Amino acid sequence: MIRDAICGLFSYDMGIDLGTATTLVWVRGRGIVLAEPSVVAVQRGTNRVLLDGQAVGNMAKEMLGKTPGSIQAIRPLKDGVIADFDITRDMIAYFIHRVHGRNWGIRPRVVIAIPMGITTVEKRAVLDSAKRAGARSVYLASEAKAAGIGVGLPIQEPVGSMIVDVGGGTTEVAVLSLADVVTSQSSRIAGDEMDEAITQHMKRTYNLLIGVQTAERIKIQIGSAYPLEEELTMEVKGRDLIAGLPRKVSVSSEEIREALKEPVNSIVDVVKMTLERTAPELSADLVDRGMVLAGGGVLLRGLDKVLAEETGLPVHMPDDPVTAVVRGTGILLEELDLWKDALESDEAEF
Description:
By secondary structure, the protein is an alpha+beta fold. The protein contains 13 helices and 19 strands. The chain has three domains: 2-38 and 75-145 and 325-345, ATPase, nucleotide binding domain (Nucleotidyltransferase, domain 5), CATH 3.30.420; 156-189 and 262-319, Nucleotidyltransferase, domain 5; 192-254, Actin, Chain A, domain 4 (Alpha-Beta Complex). It has helices at 2-9, 58-62, 85-100, 120-132, 143-150, 191-206, 212-222, 253-259, 261-276, 280-289, 303-311, 324-334, 336-339, and strands at residues 14-18, 22-27, 31-37, 40-43, 48-49, 71-74, 77-78, 81-82, 109-114, 137-142, 161-166, 171-177, 180-187, 208-209, 233-240, 246-252, 291-294, 315-316, 344-345. The protein has a six-stranded mixed beta sheet, sandwiched between helices. A five-stranded mixed beta sheet has the order 13-12-11-17-18, with helices on both faces.
């Protein structure tokens, strides 16, 4: 106990946005210090992480779809939850050790943002992963609450505030008031489903097989949810499904927008469902206050316009929606005494 307390004095308290696509880390006194893909390279057949400095994060993502038979690059989180407990633990440990610059004497307090829809078993997996990675105490906050705090919504006041957080694996929509979630909906239709929709479009329309990273690049470069003032085109390379040979085609933003229509409509439906279940007094607040967007998925061109048209509410895009959740975990850590009772935890701080 004394040893842990001493180690804690030399450890940085951390807020973690453990995302399906990207993990971001906030450190007390330093701000956001890490934002890397939630990807890990492992020895195929053993799930042993290749912790050589090139097996986690950016370098591991570069390996996706390009590894030899002995190595596999995987994403240990699926739809916002842990799909592989051991690899997730190793990934969290790697990020914690990287932030601290050492592998010994690390006992930080950690706040981790999690999707609202995960089960008790999945929450326990997150807690255990962080504890085994070296944290001396772990607190869990819903992504929606953390995002609301991160973008500066007055969630502690008796007024309705709405947050729409579209990440890689989940879409979280919540109405917050008096420091808690009043009404919420969680969907596993988000950025990854957009990438998959693009992949399927390329197969159906061009008989072209593309990888996950290519689909993501298409989404970022020419993807949109709303007609653009000037439509875009892009050259896409992949493997011809008939001839089996490399091939390239030119695609337009119009056709990619059509391909993305289904996942975009699903996100709109989750927002509408949340509004339908919101109490009248809170709904009245939202008429003027509208909703605030967060998460990397909201960077899809025109998504804010679609949500505004479909709901009739004002839609606000913060300066940096991608970091909203992790900034919220940082504020929760800074004000832990105030928020501790509202967070789930492993209880003992030892």
